[in-house]
Amino acid sequence: MKRFGLVAFVLSLGLSSISQAATQDFTVQGTAGPWSLTANPLLDYGVGDNTVPTIISSGFDFSAGSTFTIGYISGFTQTNYLSPTVDGIGDLTWPVTGYMTYPSFYYSDLTTPSYLQELVGAFATSGGTVIGNLFAVHDGGTFVTPAGASELLLGINDRVFVDNLGSLTVSVSDGTPVSPVPVPTSLPMFGGALLALGALAYRKRLRDAL
User: Fold this and answer.
1) How far apart are CA 97 and CA 17, in angstroms?
2) Within a 10 A sphere around the Cβ of 198, how many other Cβ atoms?
3) How does pLDDT run across 31-41, given as a tens digit for each residue?
4) Quick check: is 125 in a domain?
5) Is the pTM of this model over 0.85?
6) Which residues have a Cβ under 8 Å from the Cβ of 27 and sit 6 or more positions away?
7) CATH number, residue 116
8) 52: phi > 0 → left, psi -120 to 50 → alpha, else beta; which?
9) Crossing angle for the helix pair 187-209 and 2-16, nearest 10 degrees?
10) How far is CA 191 from the centre of its chain?
11) Engineering a disulfide at 88: which of 14, 59, 139, 179 sits with its beta carbon 3.0 to 4.6 angstroms away?
12) Euclidean distance between CA atoms 183 and 54, whole angstroms
């Protein structure tokens, strides 16, 4: 029985090496700007009435080159109670491509149309300073973490925020699994060998007892 206990322990080590990416749901308020204007004075937008962005930080892997996958779950926002409700794609009847007063003005790609109320993302330092390219999230996508980032920021593409309504719920997961217990590739083979030896010894004891 002791041999079988050792085999079970070895196999449990192998199972512990199976890694899982961090995944969590977040709420983005309709009044949330995509980044702090105080921390990024050169990335000015709006009239300064936005609330803080949704900040994703602890528990996720921000190593350079890792990926974040963002997916829309539910919810809608409005620019006021008379405007249409929209999801992360934004109001497709209201393009704002190239408008300097909107966060989308700072996208690296200004050839792709951007829209009022679309979901916007940015990577930033722990102090909120934006690093790398700003991007439209819309209803989901996968984005690569730039070097030096320790936060992912999410907000809404708008100019006046104070009368916005609603919120969006999104899932966020990092794409670099973490292995809590590194296990040599030969360990499963070693465990199998121990299991076979244990079975032979058990059969020998039964034969001797007869």
Assistant:
1) 47
2) 17
3) 999 999 999 99
4) yes
5) no
6) 54, 75, 167, 168, 169
7) 2.60.120.430
8) beta
9) 160
10) 36
11) 139
12) 37
How large is the average pLDDT for residues 142-167? 97
| CA Rg value for the chain | 26
Residue 108: pLDDT band (50, 70, 90) is: confident
Residue 199 resides in a domain? no
> C-alpha dihedral over 32, 38, 44, 50, to 10 degrees?
20
Q: Is residue 112 part of a domain?
A: yes
Q: How many residues does the chain have?
A: 210
Asked whether residue 187 is domain-assigned, the answer is no
Sequence-ordered list of residues with C-beta below 8 angstroms from that of 154, at least 6 positions apart, any chain: 26, 28, 32, 34, 53, 54, 56, 70, 119, 120, 121, 137, 170
Given a cut of 60, is residue 180 above it in pLDDT? no
Tell me the C-alpha distance between 11 and 126, whole Å: 40
Beta bridge partners of 156: 119
**Tokens 């949704």, residue located:** 54
For residue range 63-104, what is the model confidence (pLDDT) as tens digits?
Answer: 999 999 999 999 999 999 999 999 999 999 999 999 999 999
Mean pLDDT for the chain overall: 84
User: Cβ distance 155 to 28 under 8 Å?
Assistant: yes
Strands, DSSP E only, in the chain?
23-29, 54-56, 67-78, 91-95, 115-116, 119-124, 130-136, 140-144, 151-156, 165-174
- Domain residues for the domain of 146 are 22-176
Query: Token pair of 57, please?
Result: 């930080």
